[in-house]
Every structure is written in C-alpha cells, then in structure tokens.
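So, can you check these tokens?
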Amino acid sequence: MSWFTSGLIVLEVPLNWQQCLLFFDHQMSKNEYNTMILPIQCAQKDTRLQLYFPNDFLKSHFVNHYQPLLKTEFPEFQFLTVVGSAPKEQDKTVGKQASVLSAAKSQHNLNVNFTLSRFVKGSSNEVASAAAYQVAQNPGVSYNPLVIYGAVGLGKTHLMHAIGHEIHRINPTSKIFYVHSERFVSEMIRALQTADMEKFKHKYRSLDVLLIDDIQFFAKKERSQEELFHTVNTLLDSGQQIVLTSDRYPKELDGIEDRLKSRFAWGLSVCIEPPELETRVAILLEKARGLGHDLPEDVAFFIASEIHSNVRELEGALRRVIASSEFQSQSITLEFARQTLRDLIVAKRRLVTVDSIISQCAKYFNLKTTDLVSKKRTRHIARARQMAMKIAYEHTSSSYPQIADVFGVDHTTVMYACKKLDELVDADPALKEDLDTLVRKITQ
C-alpha cells in the first residue's frame, strides 16, 4: 500500500468518504452511527479509501456488516481497512465528520437509497421515469411542476427523491427540500402560533427545488392551500422546480381548490401503475442485491407471482425471507421461501374470495352480480364470467369444483374458461388490460 505514503491526497474528510457518511446517516440510528462509524478515520487517493479503525472489533464489525453495503452502493470505490491512526493531517477527521455531514445535508434532506440508478424501470413506470430524468437534467425548464400520481407503494416517493439526487449531483449548490404534505401543514400551524410566518415563507420560497409528497392531504385545509398556492406561484415565477406526488390524477382531487389544480396543470402529470410480473421480479432482484444477497430467480418469480399490489409489500416479503434465512442459517431456496411466506400468502388469499371477485367483476363491467352466476350467455356477460372464474382460480385457494359450485356450473366449464382466457389475452391487448386492471383492483 505504498500509494498511501506517495502521492496521498489528504483531506480532513475526503469527498468520497463524505458520501459514505451520508449513506450511513440515513441507514443507522444516531447512536449506532456515533459508536460504529464516527471513530473511523479515512485517507483517500482517487477512488481508493484507506479506513483506519481504533481497534480490531470495530474493523471486523465494519468488514462483516457495513462494507458489503458500501460496495453495493458505491461500486466505484475501493475500501482498504487497517487498525491504527490516519496520517497526522487526518487527526481532525473524527471531530469534523459530524460537521461535514451536517453541511452536506444542509443542501438537501433526501433519502440516500432513492436514486435513479436504483429505480427499476418497466412499462408500468416508463413515462414517469423518463419525465423524472428530463426534469432532473433541466430543472425549472422541463415539466414544471411535475406531478407523479398512482396508488400507494408504487415508487412515487422514490422517483421524487431520485430527481432531487440527480439535480444535486449535477449542481451540488442547489437548495433542495423534501416534505410530506402533513409536515408542511404542521409547520405552517406552528408558524402561525408563534407569529413566525415570515421565516416559514422564506424557508420554502427560497428553495431551488421543492418536493412535496401526497398532496391529497391538503384537501379541505383552506389556510394551508392558500399558503401552498402562494409558495407554488413564487417558485414557478422564479423558475424553480416543483415536484409533487398524489394518489390520483390532480384534477380528480376532492377538496383541493381549482386555482391550485390549475397551477398543477401548468406542468406535466404522469401516472405510475402497479408493476407487471417481469418488473416485480427485477425489483426483487435489485432490492436483494442492495441488501447484500443474491436472490435465486425462481424465488423472485415465486414472490412476484404471489404479491401483486405494490412494491412496498414486495420488499416486505423479501426482507422476511432474507431475515429468516439469516436467523436459521439456511440458504434461500424456492421451498424455503414457500414455507417462510406460507402464512402471509394464505392470509392474502383469504382476503380475496370468489364472492368478492364476482362483486368486483360485476362492478367493473357494469353488471349485476346475479348476471355472473346466471345462465345468460350474451357475449358481454360470458366474458366477464370467464374473467371472474380465472381470477378466482389464480388468486384464491379454491379448486375448480369449488369455484364451479359458486357459479352453478361443472368444473370443466371453469377449466375451459381459464384456458380460453389465456388464448384471448395473448391475442387481444385490450382484454389483457381489462384482466390486469381487475386483478390489481381485487388484490391491492
């Protein structure tokens, strides 16, 4: 390691190590950070980081628990570890790390895990991710404001933070702030109570990028909407970027004033749909790698086939499998995943019943539930009935005969319906869209 004594770049806290500190700060409790990370000293040359530990215990703990995470998050960095002290110029490192971290974070409060590189793209989010990239490259110019909408747990918040990270990467001096709508409201209420509205206004109106999550929570909060309206106007007029998320299309938000909806419409509204199977598999594989595990593809397909509704549930199931594997010291196999998630899958299937599927299908196709269990054979009713049968077979624990009993038919009719739907869906994109939409509504 002679390079450490020849041509060594000595900084109080090397830039690359600052990035690692931000990563740890988002991952750990304050106590864990102060105990396990703060004592580490660092010297840097190019992308090589020499880490100095005060004792063998801290070094061993870091190598076993934290270094794999850093290698995944920062594959371009090389980490070398040694017990000892950094060069004398580094003596102030420990004392400066907290202030460096604070200074680095002062420009933004983004989640370090939510980056564009870690956002898995698929047909369900390709428009939203493309818009996010354009906004990040041209803040205040392309699509302002950008509104990302969709159901819970589909990646809206991830994409919002990713925009902020990319803008900050391109221009580290940008003042970027993420806030949930409820926090915005509570901060405004406190400002009103303490007669400190000017400080509140300055905080939000002096930003380069404002990211507001879940704007549906502003519904019926008239004073908060008024303040948001003026904040949005000020930022838009000065060419600063605004990104918003919502659980539905902005014009459909109840309890939101028309003048705010009008401002939202100035930019672009993009939807994120629930991910299709292939994207769900890709998400699982990516998140597993981020946790330091190689997930077998058959296990990823199994979990993705059972969890349809959103990414949050997918990640929850994945973490459960990984944790069980570590606790029991067993490798992750398809059978192990089946056993680990057995009660979760059974519980989800119990929530979806044949009766609830019939009800949802009838509502979707504007029919009566009695139509679907009748002997009527008109094409519209017959197709809806076939869909209900197929969904019931794939998303409940009911057998062909059990489903047939509910519909008052022979079990071979249910088998035929499933086979027929598979053929029709392959040839008819519109029919596939109807089926996918129904499954999402029923299983989410």
Notes: The radius of gyration is 26 Å. The first strand starts at residue 41 and ends at 45.
